[in-house]
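Backbone-to-sequence.
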């Protein structure tokens, strides 16, 4: 049965290119109203998977449903509902940014009036209004990324597939991207984002799918990620007092850094445990100069997965 509000469901999907098994066995769900992060090292199959979801590549086996449709059997139903932002954008160099968007709108069958107003609205959303009448070739890499995002949104798709959307963006544009993606999810859209910048995904994503060597190795919500064991770094003045105190509480630690900026890394089971340790150290008159999580929640999961440097 077709469920247009079904988001994305992927089960047992595989795809090879000759002898290269780009995707071996991937399962995940990306529900509507949420941002799902696709995380994995270079060559783990993320782009191949996105191409399958976008109906641009067929899976060799497995089940895929995008907004209730099978991309291999019903590509036009899928394409009308999916906005796809590839990791590198080919631009029509002589067209202006506005013309690029309007041309795409025409391809999606939008009327002249509808595509003009939608294109103008999207140029505002991605902060490109002053470049709307410039040929797309003069846009910087980050500006081209933003145009690519606007392109993906032209037909107001229910499902968004964004491959490395933050790459090339300056910090201000990354913050704008984050709030744009959150607002699209809040409108009920299904958003899938692949990125290597895990600290950023912590802020954007509701859930994450970790892939390695073509397999999905973990599915996790950000709430679950936030309650797992986490590494904290701690610095004190002097470090010897910190070492002695930790030793007396039976807390083991690793030393990181150099003599100029030495710090201890400690594994803690929860934020409550971290709060207890910080309080105990301070009450024990250890002069703490820094105490913070060593990485974001997703980065901690990524580092903890036993998949030879996933
Ligand atoms: N058309 C193709 N022909 C042959 N091999 C391919 C093809 N497309 C992808 N591959 C291979 O499949 C594997 C997965 O590639 P894919 O681009 O999906 O990875 P990725 O996770 O997106 O990587 P990155 O993070 O570097 O973008 C790689 O080993 C890649 O070389």
């Amino acid at each position: 049965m077709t469920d247009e509000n079904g988001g994305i469901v992927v089960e047992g999907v595989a795809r090879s290119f000759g002898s290269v098994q780009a995707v071996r066995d991937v399962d995940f769900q990306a529900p509507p109203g949420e941002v799902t992060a696709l995380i994995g090292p270079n060559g783990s199959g993320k782009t191949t998977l996105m191409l399958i979801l976008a109906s641009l590549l067929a899976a060799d086996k497995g089940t895929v449903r995008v907004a209730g449709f099978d991309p291999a059997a019903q590509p036009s139903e899928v394409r009308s509902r999916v906005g796809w932002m590839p990791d590198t954008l080919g631009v029509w160099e002589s067209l202006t940014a506005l013309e690029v968007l309007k041309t795409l709108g025409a391809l999606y069958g939008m009327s002249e009036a509808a595509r003009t107003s939608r294109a103008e609205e999207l140029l505002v959303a991605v902060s490109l209004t002053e470049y709307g009448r410039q040929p797309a070739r003069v846009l910087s890499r980050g500006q081209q990324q933003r145009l690519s995002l606007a392109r993906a949104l032209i037909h107001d798709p229910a499902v968004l597939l964004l491959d490395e959307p933050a790459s090339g963006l300056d910090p201000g544009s990354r913050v704008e991207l984050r709030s744009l993606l959150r607002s699209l999810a809040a409108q009920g859209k299904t958003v899938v984002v692949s990125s290597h910048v895990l600290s950023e995904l912590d802020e954007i994503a509701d859930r994450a799918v970790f892939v390695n060597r073509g397999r999905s190795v973990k599915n996790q919500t950000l709430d679950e990620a936030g309650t797992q064991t986490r590494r904290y770094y701690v610095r004190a003045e002097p470090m010897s007092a910190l070492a002695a105190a930790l030793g007396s509480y039976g807390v083991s630690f690793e030393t990181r850094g150099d003599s100029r900026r030495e710090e201890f890394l400690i594994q803690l089971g929860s934020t409550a445990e971290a709060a207890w340790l910080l309080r105990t150290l301070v009450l024990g008159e250890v002069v703490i100069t820094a105490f913070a999580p060593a990485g974001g929640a997703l980065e901690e999961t990524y580092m903890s997965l036993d998949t030879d440097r996933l």
